[in-house]
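Researcher: Re-running this chain for the archive, since the previous output was lost when a drive failed. Same request as before.
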Amino acid sequence: MKKLKYIIFALVLFVFVGTVHAAPSYSVTVNKFSVQSGGTVTLTIRLNNVMGWDVSVTSAGNTDGCSNHWVDDTGDGSNTTKTLTTTCKASSPGTFTLVVSGKISDNELNVVNVSDTTKITVTEYVAPTKSSVNKLNSLEVQGYELTPEFDPDVLEYSTTVPSGTKSVNINITKKDSKSVANGDFKEVSLEEGANRCVITVTAEDGSKRTYVVVVNVESEDPITVTVDGKEYTVIQKADQLEKPNGYELSNVEIDEKSVPSFYNGNAKITLVGLKDADGNIGLYVYKDGTFSPYEVIEVNGFSFLVMSTDETLDGFSNTKSININDKDYVVYYNDNEDIVLIYGMNVATGNVGWYRYDTEEKTFLRYKEESVKEEEKKEKKDYFLIAMLFAGCLGVSIIILLILLAMNNSKDKKNKKLIAILENVHPEKKEKKVELKDADEEIDNSMDLRFLEFIDREAEESRNEPEEKPVIEETEEEIVEEEETEESEPQELSKRELKKLAKQLKKEEEREAKEMREEFLATRENVIISDEDILEEIPNSEEVLSSKKNKKKNKKKKR
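Model: Regenerated structure tokens:
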């Protein structure tokens, strides 16, 4: 009964009061509060239960500027929900603000003021890093099993389909949506034998990864052979083979079946195509029912077929591997490694044998053992001649040096011997040599004394007779002595001429003394002169000394 009263009261209140309406409202949001320079920010204003609106957006700070103004209503007096958006672009690092203002109202004329400020941070622009992911997420040949099982890091796969299969679907998915896949996938056409399907995945940064799927279509009647312990299938369709230079398309019978082949008339070589379990097709030399790899080196228009042999050469027992045209080959070399030999055939001529390969010039030359031996002998002979020439030059140089040293020692010994003879056999010569030295000293002293006396005498005469012209009076002895040095001399001389005459006199005496010393020393040092020449020099020195002594006595008498 009490519950019924509450229900009746609520119905009466609803009838007299009417429907209750929610007041108008708004919300302001941005998609980001931080943006790089040059980026954009989107501002969204959501208006709820509005009939009319007058809203504005302005910006300030590091932005290119964004402003908007919306004024409108529903037109039918009903309330609605309205969404307003604007986008602002950041111009440079820093901050900018977005300011929202205005009013909204509903159909009952309830008015609400709109106000909001949002601050945005602008950072330095950093270029985005491009993705380097270039892997597949999945790979399958629809309806068939791959070997091995797919792994994004494994690049090569194979599968086998029944004979007569014309196509398969290869499905892939990428690990990165930004990468790009190209190649053989989706529906792929097949032919009998091995079909190589290549899929390349390129990452956003340009790096690439290549996956290979070999789809083997079984032959209706395959021909299988074994080469070096490995099983191969004979190619029975010519369009699956590429004809090498110098060969013509032909046919050969294998297991009573005609299969395509290539034949070289000069070299007498027949080539047949074989395919391994991985679908790789190669040419093999077919001869007398056996197969051997067709390894041809193409260099500068020369085709050389590498062949195996049990033949050996003296001095070429060492082997090593060298790379020619991006493929490694086993070669033989001598002790010095300056000659490299390969056994094979000149495809153009059919000549089989040893060939010399120049690793620098990349050329082949037919090897002739005799010519190489002669070349080695010549080189050894040249080295021997050079060594002998060097040794001869060295020996001659040593002999000349010894002769010079011996001559010098002989000269010193002879000088010492001559001096000893002069001093021991002729002691009077030694005494006279000492006298000559004393005489030289006396001559030097007398020249200085005579010059000083001459100057003093001239100065004294000038003081006694200042008014008269000086006249030189000489004794008979002085006149005779002066005539020996001067053939003619004026009787009356000026003071300047007297000084000049005195200097000349001194120079003449010094010259005579110097000549006497040089003559004596020459007799001592010259090893070529004989003892008689040295003894002859001594008397001459005695005459000079006697002359000097006489002059000295005359000077004393004068004084």
